[in-house]
Amino acid sequence: MTLPSNHYGQNNFGAVDGYAYAAQLSTRVSARLLRDAQGLRLVDQAGETLCTGAPSERERISGGPCLMTFGTAWTFDTDDIQGVELLLGPSDDDWLSSLEVWHPRLFAVVAGCLIGVLIIWKWGLDILVAGAIALTPTGFVSTIDTGNLAAMDRFLTAPTELSQSDQDMVRDIFAAIKDHAPYAPYGDYTLEFRKADVIGPNAFALPGGTVVVTDALVNDFNDPNIIAGILGHELAHVSERHSLRQLYRSLSVYVLIAMMAGDVGPILEDVLLEGSALASLAYSRDHEASADVIGIKTSHAAGYDPAALAEFFEQLTEDYGESGPEWMSTHPSNAERIETIKKLAAEQ
Ligand SMILES: [Zn+2]
What we know:
The protein is α+β, with helices and mostly antiparallel strands. It has 3 domains: 5-91, PH-domain like (Roll); 94-127; 136-347, no CATH class. It has helices at 81-88, 95-135, 138-155, 164-180, 215-220, 224-239, 242-250, 253-260, 266-274, 285-301, 308-320, 334-347, and strands at residues 15-22, 28-36, 39-44, 49-52, 57-60, 66-70, 74-78, 158-159, 190-195, 203-205, 210-214. The strands form 2 sheets. Strands 4-3-2-1-7-6-5 form a 7-stranded antiparallel beta sheet. A 4-stranded mixed beta sheet has the order 8-9-11-10, with helices on both faces. A hairpin with a 5-residue loop joins strand 5 and strand 6 (66-70). It is rod-shaped and about 120 Å long. It binds zinc ion. One of its GO terms (molecular function) is metal ion binding. Its cofactor is Zn(2+). Keywords: Hydrolase, Metal-binding, Metalloprotease, Protease, Zinc.
């Protein structure tokens, strides 16, 4: 209801129309809250001042009118929310300030969600992998070795061309290293020779304990101490379950969940047994560093010079540059690794 403005006096600086209630009366009267030369006041339809000064309380009923209390005497309500804001300025109760009140809580909720996402992103896969490892039957891991070796033989590797005496030399070292290496978690450590030009001088371990040595490694590094160091390092990847962890990490989360649910279907077996991912697996820096530490202890215990592993990496750096050949591109930087190996070897 809009009241004729002349009922309220002149020189309005702003006004809102509504209804006033006297504290002691149950009836309401049409009224106007206005600001003029006399200041802010509530007037009735006749222009009589009901009370003066700013409201002592003001609240907005969500989607409804704005209620104002003037001391103990009068209440005033109006639907003209915008008019009230123009007249009195933004309220403490309006959405702007309520957002300020809610902000810390909203912020906490958003921060909580982000932390949750971060945890899942950073450790979710590790947690899944740990679960999958715990649920993996020991016997199954040796079939992973067999399957992967067969897959590699189809696509990546060829029968060894090493001489019998070279093979025997490596076998003797392997036997000595095996005797001093930590316990193999999934059956025994076994040695395989393969010619694999694409991966150059290399040795790698399959999760069940199969260690593959390439012809190029024996040809380029025909030094028992170096070979002992490398074998010690590879066996450490097995005993620490790095190989199985890396294999599982390379699988999709879907497959890991299926595995934990006990649903080891044919698709999963294909992935695990036929996957050629193993040959290109990259261990984390932590895994490499811990395999270096254990490998050095093992080769020293077996009677070899553990510092030889540093020579291997020095030679690799010379041949392939600081980052090494492609297969070890995610390994720790060679310079850093060589320093650590020398230090560890000196401590033996
Ligand atoms: Zn390694």
